[in-house]
Amino acid sequence: MSLDEYLFGLFSNYLKKRKRISVAKREETVNLEDIKGRLTILANAVTGEPVGIFPAEREGGYKNNNFFLPSYFGEMPTLEQNLNFFLFRVLYLSVQKRMNLNYNNGENVTLEDARQKALESSPEVLKALFDEFTALKPLFDELKRHFDTSASTSGKPADYSYLFGKWMTNIPETGNNDVLKNFDDRTKKAFEQKVETIMNAANPVEEMRTLQVDKKQQEDQVVHNYFEKIETLEEHKGGIWKDFDGDDEMEEHKNALDELKMQNTVRTDDDTHSVFQTEFIENITVAESTEIKADDFFITYDEWDYSSRRYKRDFCKLFPKTVTESDIPYYNNTIKEHTVTLTALRKMMTNMNNRYREQRRQTEGDDFDPDALTDYVVDVKTGHTPSEKIYLSKRKKEKSLSILLLLDISLSSDGYASGNRIIDVEKQVSILFGEILSEFDVDFSINAFFSKTRNYSTFVNLKSFDTGWDKAKYKIGTVQPQGYTRIGTALRHSGSLLEKRETQSKWIVLLSDGKPNDYDRYEGKYGINDVKQALYELKQKQINSYALAIEAQAKYYLPVMFGQNHYRILTNPMELLDALVKLYEKIRK
Question: Which of 221, 275, 212, 260 is nearest to 243 (CA)?
Answer without folding.
Answer: 221
